Here is the input.
Amino acid sequence: MQGSRLYEGQKLALKYFFVAVVLFGAQLLFGLLAAIQFLYPDFLFGVLDFSINRIVHINALVVWLLYAMIGAVYWLLPDEAGIEVVGVKLANLAFYILTAAVAVVVLVYLFIQVGPGKESTIWFITEGREYIEAPRWADIGIVAVVLVFLYNVYATVMKGKHTGILVVLMADLIALAGLYLAGMFYTDNIAIDQFWWWWVVHLWVEATWEVYVAAVGGYILIKTLNANRKVVEMWLWIEVAMMFGSGILGLGHHYFWIGTPEYWWEIGALFSALEPVPLVGLFVHVLYDWGKERGKGNTIKNVPAFAWLTVETFGNFLGAGVWGFMHTLPQINLYTHGTQWPAAHGHLAFFGAYVAIMISAIYLGIQGKAGLKELKMTKAGWWAITLITVGVLLMTVALTISAYVQTMVERGMYGATWEGFFVAQADVWFTQGMGWRLFSGLMVIAGYGFLVYDLLTCDKKQPAEVYEEEAAAATA
Amino acid sequence: MEFYMQDIPHEDFLPIFVISAAVIMFGMMYAGFFTIVKLRLVKRYFMVFAYLSWLALVASIYYLGELLRVEPYTQKVLIGAMFGYLVFPHMVYFILEKVHTRYEHSN
Amino acid sequence: MDKKPSVWSSNRFWRRSATWVTGVSAVLLIFLTMDSMSQMTMGTAKDIENKVAKRIPSPVVINYKIDYQLNRKRGHEVPIIGGMDANGNSKYEEKEKFFGRDDYSEKEASELIHKGKLTIQAKNCMDCHTLLGNGAYYAPDLTKAWLDPTWNTLAAAYGGKEYAIAAFLQNPPAMAMHERKMPNLGITKDEAKAVVAYLKFMAAIDTNGFPRNFGKIKGAVDARK
Here is the structure.
């Protein structure tokens, strides 16, 4: 009965959020298996090898973030445009097709694992390219589903209101979808292969996804803090300028060592220095808003969503800013490229920049589904955010220690040979780092348990005044 | 001859990582102090800490450049970063003020 | 509003700025990409005959001896194909037998490389190893695997390091060198040969000096100062 106030598009968003949370669990589970194998290499050897666990770990990450991102758009689209999503039946169909395809791809990863060295393997089993391993048939399926999604967004906005947030999203989503095509071809030339592979990976993660997050973050600020829409939308354009200005050519920092011309060193170094720009801008902005809002007595309409958005701000700054700058200049990247450094950076940056804000968006969905004007933080909600955030921070520090040992021993002392690799991996500081990583991974998984529990029950466990207010509003 | 990449002795790795983290941290401290002083959340003389943070940032960037044995091009980039950091929070704050006075006049 | 609003608070100004910044960056990236592509296309057998250096050489490099040496002019290590001249450049002369032959035609070599690359993708190599430094960090980097000193120690027992690597790939646990073993991925004899060819080809790619000081003994970094 409560759900009837939702748009059909928002109901679809809840389905996307549901699958996203399930896949988040899969990501953590397979990450755990891989983390165990770093310490006990015989664990599941020959059954579920490290490569398979890692494929599921990183693919589940990418896919659940995409699910949550699509979900968040379906959630805010009818609300912003003020009308039902156009073509919502087709959108529902696309959801089921996509989910079935994801299930098949995962089952093939787990049970078929590898294929013979032929084109048919690339088409039906795995493409074997990190992050975008999904076989070609699935690529084409994903493109088809994304086209339906784009149709929904464009048709709805054309018919309804054109808010600034929606305009940014429309432009960004078309770039995001178009970039996926850059990863859909095969070449014998591994340098060109990786060149275009980075177009997908970098221009997603360090450009189009960031802008997406800025747009959705703006929407969340309006919803949780009643932020002034004009200010949010103008600031969004400034962020787009900063993010695309530093992010697009920031691609250069991946082109130092893969057979590319030397001028990418200069470009990469310059834009590495520029990449903190949007982060500093965001930091000043957040402080400014906090300072101005203080003492105004505005209540936060959705505390968990806002808390996760705060984690986003600081996680993004630490993960992308500090841990990024630590190894991005070519002079030092020569020694850190291909070690645990990107792993340390990647864990915190993905969490800070994307995971936190998507959880925030999911909490908005939960609030809307329950039809509550306010959503407070429950005990389980606090446990979830604390365990997950502290867990990921600890994991990053642990991986950083391992990364430092690996860089120093393997690259600095042993000239990057296999012997150097294994000497570094056996170093007691390295293995201790891996041990702490495993421990912190368990913390994150415990936090995930609380998170799922909280998402399912938080609307029923609110303090009494929330329901009283609700009842008062209903009778008034 | 000035090469782009110089050998870095392995004992320099640790200071490089610590210093590059410090660059971003001092940058944030500068931006943070600057903003809260401007907002009058703390006393005006706290602005001293903002500029001290910026000086620490400049020292860190200089030391980082030494440790990385950078050639002239990267030197210029790093010097640009020092002054970019100095100016940028001023710019962002200026724009925010303009926006808020325009759209939140009634508040 | 009593006075004209500042341009800094104009939505239109920032929307245009964002569009321009994005557009200019994208156009620059496209030009740079076109230039990079032209420098990164695979060389041909003719290039090798004419001693033209290519960042990504022709697959026929598998007929030649590959090395990785410091180039004084560029200030870092570069792949050396078929011997090094006095200036530290490739001579494209010294051949080296690869599975008993050093006369693979361009077509034969390309077919080997093709099969090798497909196998590398089909077996998910990148989800344990790094290639050109990209991939997972569970197993060693394969960029210069062909030149790794490990294989020199095994070469004699197998009649050449290509045979040793191929034997390893077909049943890695049998030749496990560390506690962290490579699993048996069902790599056939033909696939193994193709993968070894790919590794040799990859060692000849100019990676701007990555990895640094490759294969130097302990302490080499400081020793060269």
